[in-house]
Amino acid sequence: MPSKPAGTLYRGREGMWSWVAHRITGVGIFFFLLVHVLDTALVRVSPEAYNEVIGTYKNPIVGLMEVGLVGAILFHAFNGIRLILVDFWAKGPRNQRKLMIGVGVVWVVLFVPFVIRHLTHVFGG
Amino acid sequence: MDVKVKILRYNPEVLDESEWKTYSVTLLPGDRVLDALHKIKWEQDGTLTFRRSCAHGVCGSDAMRINGRNRLACKTLIKDLNPEKEITVEPIKGLPVLKDLVVDMEPFFDAYRSVMPFLVTSGHEPTRERIQSQEDRERFDDTTKCILCAACTTSCPVFWSDGQYFGPQAIVGAHRFIFDSRDEGTEQRLEILNDKEGVWRCRTTFNCTDACPRGIEVTKAIQEVKRALIFRRV
Known about the structure:
The structure holds two protein chains of two kinds. By secondary structure, chain A is mainly alpha-helical. The N and C termini of chain A lie far apart (61 Å). Chain A contains four helices and no strands. Chain A has helices at 14-45, 47-56, 60-88, 96-124. Chain B has two domains: 2-103, Beta-grasp domain (Ubiquitin-like (UB roll), Roll), CATH 3.10.20; 106-231, Alpha-helical ferredoxin (Fumarate Reductase Iron-sulfur Protein, Chain B, domain 2). By secondary structure, chain B is of the alpha+beta class. Chain B has helices at residues 33-44, 106-114, 134-138, 157-161, 167-178, 186-193, 207-211, 218-231; strands spanning 2-9, 19-26, 63-66, 69-72, 87-90, 97-99, 102-103. Chain B has eight helices and seven strands. In chain B, 30% of the residues lie in helices and 14% in strands. The longest helix of chain B is centred in the C-terminal third of the chain and has 14 residues, at 218-231. Chain B has a five-stranded mixed β-sheet, with helices on one face. In chain B, strands 6-7 form a two-stranded antiparallel ribbon. The interface between A and B is medium-sized, with 26 and 32 residues.
């Protein structure tokens, strides 16, 4: 076997890339939850410590990270529903591409209004 | 027209690494990638190594990665590949490369053998055919088309990173008998595929369905086996 199997990237379609995106968003959400559980647990240490830590989140950089977080959660949630349908609905595999388009549409419909509202809070208020 | 074909070459007797080589060949738009490989081997570089037998999409010998996707070289027309640009040809992924486009298919065939791809029955052999209704035959019609080319199994990201996974083809091979009303080995086969390296490894990327040169809905077949396992009903 070649020591370095140099080759091109496999050109999968939406099924493969949605799987890649599902994994990346999944790992991202896990790290958010880790931090989230830790900072919420601070309230047991002292309410002042909790307030102090939460206060540091009120800056534009974290505001932009929240945009990414909501985008990732929305994709992960709706793609998860798509995967459940592919697994359990007999017509799922045949309609997976349409389901993928559905995920995209729902994602845009929910994400765009959120971004507008959220960013006006972050940068306007 | 002149077409540039870029092939990932590997010869363990010369170099430990694989390397890209580009060839220029004159082809017709209706020619196949296999014709390009033949022209290169016969007219330019006799050391180019690849498998092919029937050359008409039936034997399943010449699965390779053409422009990044698993295809049969004998079924892929040059005009469908955007011949203005270079055409890339690589060996299929996830099986050990032996030379150029030839890979070791044994791990792939081992997985196929392990699902018992043959009719299992008990009792005396009937003196006439085993009768089956058209509806019962229809249940597994799609998976009878498999030609064991390995295009599906080697397009699967799970198989690339975990060679223990049975792979789409073995599940297709099992599906063909699991849903056959004449077969009595269903329980055994379902138990084999219930393994942690069995159907549950499938992440539904649909690469296999896209790659299958016979148009088998591979992912759908895998999902049917999954559901048969969950609901214990075929």
